[in-house]
Specification:
Chain lengths: ~150, ~80
């Protein structure tokens, strides 16, 4: 199983990262996946209170966040028996419209690929130590105390 | 012969909890035999948050139970509600 996890402190372009990842996978023997499931999450331009959002700040726990992402990914990929897993996550200041997370799963069939992608996304949202702070256009800010609904 | 006793733990706070408490990191003396738990430390340190408001803890960068006895040299983190992805 091919696994890659990266934290980005500056903006990344998910489709470019994905293209490189797929190119690498294409050159691996016996690693071709007939099914791929992708999720790209972007920062919305509206704060939780309905006001305009200037930016989202993402804090993490260096060391534990990386370990926990790997643990969650290995567990999920093992349960669904998938071929490949790519997780890319932003940290730092993220602007509306920028990608915050990319999860890409390759498997032999659509069922495992889609289920693994969704489960891993939910797992990292709730069990990988990240914290979001909303910066509003009036200069105020607030830490979020949970995730948006599914 | 046993090595020197670390005799303290490292406590880390994150995000909103760090800002409400007013500090990010603290070294806390601990008896060489260990035994104090994160729950006991939480009340000793008099945090402004309620412990039942989704606070989780990590010991040496792994999620752990609030009543796990701490050992000298441990890294203890109090984690406010997580919001990743």
């Amino acid at each position: 199983m091919q696994l890659r996890i990266n934290l980005h402190s500056t903006a990344f372009e998910p489709l470019q990262v994905l293209a490189c990842w797929q190119e690498e996978q294409a050159h691996r023997l016996n690693a071709d996946s007939a099914a791929e499931a992708l999720f790209i999450g972007r920062v919305r331009g509206v704060a939780a209170d309905g006001g305009e959002l200037e930016a989202l700040e993402l804090e993490h726990y260096p060391g534990m966040t990386e370990q926990q992402l790997e643990r969650l990914a290995l567990d999920c990929c093992s349960r669904h028996t998938v071929n490949s897993c790519l997780v890319q996550h932003r940290i730092g200041r993220v602007l509306p419209g920028e990608a915050i997370v990319l999860v890409a799963i390759g498997a032999d069939r659509r069922g495992p690929a889609q289920r693994c992608c969704q489960e891993l996304l939910e797992a990292l949202k709730h069990n990988a130590p990240f914290w979001k702070r909303e910066w509003r256009t009036d200069g105020s800010s607030a830490w979020l105390s949970g995730n948006t609904p599914l | 012969m046993a090595g020197p006793c670390a005799s303290e733990i490292r406590i880390l706070l994150f995000a909103g909890l760090r800002e409400r408490a007013g500090w990010a990191e603290r070294h806390w003396p601990i008896d060489c035999t260990g035994g104090i738990t994160p729950r006991q430390l939480w009340f000793t340190l008099q945090f402004p948050d309620e412990l039942n408001q989704g606070i989780r803890i990590a010991i040496n960068q792994q999620f752990a139970d609030l009543d796990t006895p701490l050992q000298p040299g441990d890294e203890l983190a109090f984690l406010p509600p997580i919001s990743g992805g």
